Amino acid sequence: MLRHDILHLLAAHPEKYVSGERISQQLKVTRAAIWKQIQVLKEEGFEIEGQTRNGYCLLKTPFSLNEWVLKKALTTISLGSKITLEDELESTNVWAKELARQGGAHGQVVIARSQSSGKGRLQRQWESPRGGLWMSVVLRPNLSLADASKLTLATSVAIVDAFEELYSLRIGIKWPNDLVFDGSKIAGILGEVVGEWNTVQALILGIGINVNFPRERLSPLLKATTLLEILGYEVDLNVLAAGIMKHLEKQVICLENKAFEELRSNWLERAVSLGEEVRILRGEQVCQGVFKGISIDGALLLETDDGEKSFSAGEVQVRSKIGEYF
Ligand code: BT5
Description:
- This protein is an alpha+beta fold and 326 residues long.
- Helix content is 32%, strand content 30%.
- Helix 4 (67-73) crosses helix 9 and helix 7 crosses helix 9.
- Biotinyl-5-AMP binds at residues 91-93, 115, 118-122, 124-128, 134-136, 178, 185, 188-190, 206-208, 210, 218, 222, 224.
C-alpha cells in the first residue's frame, strides 16, 4: 500500500525531512499522489510536518489502533503474524471463530475499534465503546483439551505483566479471569473452543480491556474502571496490543513446555483475595470459606468448615464476605 510505503520511508529517517521528490522517485509515483496520501495519513492521526523546501517529517504516530503502527510495535514470532483490524465488528470472538473454522492460522488476530455486540462468558454482554482494546487471538497450540483450558489463566497473567511492564501499574486477577484495579473490573477474557465432538481445532482467546475512554462511557451499574481513569492520560493502543501479544506468546510457549506449576504460582502471585473469607454462589446455593488457591486445572479451592472444596469456573460466582463483588 502506497501509504505504508511512504510511512516506511519517513520512519527510516527519524526527525529528518524527506523531500517529496525523493519519495516520488523511490516509490515511482507523482508528488501530487504523495501529497494526497499524506492528507489521509494526517486524518488517521499521524502527525506529519510538510515544509515546501525540505519535504515531509514524521513527528508522531497515532495512539488509536492502526495496522502499520501495530505491526511496527510487534516483537512476536507467531502471534499477530496476520492481523485483521476493523472499525466495528459485532464481536471479535465471533469473527475469529469463523476464521478458525475456515482454517485461520495459529496466531491470527482480530481487532475491532468498537463492538456492537461484545460477548462475556455465559451469554453475558460486554460493553465495547471506542478507545478500548477488543481483540481475539486464534490459537492452535500443541496442547490437550485439558491443558488448553489453562490458557485463560495464562492470558490473565500476560495482561497483568503487560500492564506492569508498560505502565508500572499493578492490577490483580479476580478468579477465574477478571482483571481488577481497586476492586473495579478493567478487563475480561473469553476463551472459546472451536471443534467438533472431542477434537479441538482451535482456541479463541478474546481479550477486552477498558483503555482510552472515561468510565462514564460504561453503564453506571457496572463496577468497572478504565486505564484512562487510573493513569489520567491516554496510552498508545498499538503498543498495548503488541505488549499483550508478547506476554501471551511467552505464556503459550511455557504451557506447551508443560510449565504448569510455574503458571499456577505466577497466577497466585497476581491474584486478589487470596487467604480472605469469600462466599461462592452456585445458583441458590451459598458456600462460605477461605480462598486458599487454585488447583492445577484452575479450579478455585475453598477451605470450609466441612473441609476443602473445589469449584470450577463457569458454574459459580464469587463474592466477598460482605456481599461485595471483590
Ligand atoms: C468477561 O466475561 O469478562 C469476558 C469479556 C471478554 C470481552 C472480549 S472483547 C474481545 C472479545 N470479543 C468479544 O465479543 N468478547 C471478547 P464475564 O466474566 O462474563 O463478565 C461479563 C460481565 O462484566 C457483564 O455481565 C457485566 O457485568 C460486566 N461488564 C460488561 N462490560 C464491561 C466492561 N467494558 N468493563 C467492565 N465490566 C464489564
